[in-house]
Design goal:
By secondary structure, the chain is mostly beta strands. It has two helices and 13 strands; from the N terminus they run αβββββββββββαββ. It has a three-stranded antiparallel β-sheet, with no helix packed on it. The relative contact order is 0.07. InterPro entries: CCN, Growth_fac_rcpt_cys_sf, IGFBP-like, Insulin_GF-bd_Cys-rich_CS, TSP1_CCN, TSP1_rpt, TSP1_rpt_sf, VWF_dom.
């Protein structure tokens, strides 16, 4: 391997110190290290061997350099006696790391087509870019369904054909109600019969119907038969 010279560092070390830290010639492993996601392979502080660049908040020194592509430098400002330095932004601003990439404080970014985020005070907040609306069944679209559309990021609502929906439900368990979407059944108890004797009706409020909508339901009832009327007495002449 060819000999190398000590490269400039953030510490601005004098040449004699660099000569002590960087051995000549340099010897590097045949197989370069496997770096974690978001940490690229870079030359060490001696400009000799490939190492994994240190990321935001990770320890660093003259040999173990920070990821300059992310605007990071080895910050010795909070390190006593020049020890315990960490990678930080050059201007001292806080940043955040998402999916292996570092963003500056205040920077707006999109980790996916469905989210827009903003880096703020070392953390980040996101807002959805896809509408989370709910479409209820209507007479012109009784079977709405949200599907992923090829080539589009956000899912869209479509009106499923009634014939297809009925065919799909044909294989359901016998007696199962045909509903265009999952329904959690709810209802009140049946009221007392409206007539104390004979045929009357009782009511309840329930969503146990085809469209899972609350409605007042009625049914016939009879508490007991009404007593027979007494026979009329024959008229006395």
């Amino acid at each position: 391997l060819a000999k190398t010279t000590c490269i400039e560092s953030a510490m601005a070390l004098p040449p004699q110190v660099c000569a002590q830290l960087c051995r000549r010639p340099c010897y590097c492993p045949w197989v370069p290290p496997r770096c974690p996601r978001g940490s690229p392979l870079v030359l060490d502080g001696c400009g000799c061997c490939k190492i994994c660049a240190r990321r935001l908040g990770e320890p660093c020194d003259f040999l173990h350099v920070c990821d300059q592509s992310q605007g990071l430098v080895c910050d010795y400002s909070t390190a006593p006696a020049g020890t315990g330095a960490t990678c930080n932004f050059e201007d001292g601003e806080e940043g955040c790391e998402v999916n292996g990439r570092v963003y500056r404080d205040g920077e707006v970014f999109q980790p996916s087509c469905k989210l827009q985020c903003r880096c703020l005070d070392g953390g980040f907040t996101c807002v959805p870019l896809c509408q989370e609306d709910v479409r209820l069944p209507t007479p012109d679209c009784p079977y709405p369904r949200r599907v992923e559309v090829p080539g589009k990021c956000c899912p869209e609502w479509i009106c499923e054909a009634q014939e297809r929906h009925l065919l799909r439900d044909a294989g359901a368990a016998p007696g199962a109600a045909l509903r265009p979407y999952p329904c959690q059944e709810w209802g009140t108890e049946w009221s007392a019969c409206s007539a104390t004797c004979g045929v009357g009706f009782s009511t309840r409020v329930s969503n146990q119907n085809r469209y899972c909508r609350l409605e007042t339901q009625r049914r016939l009832c009879m508490a007991r038969p009404c007593p027979a009327l007494p026979a009329a007495s024959p008229a006395v002449s």
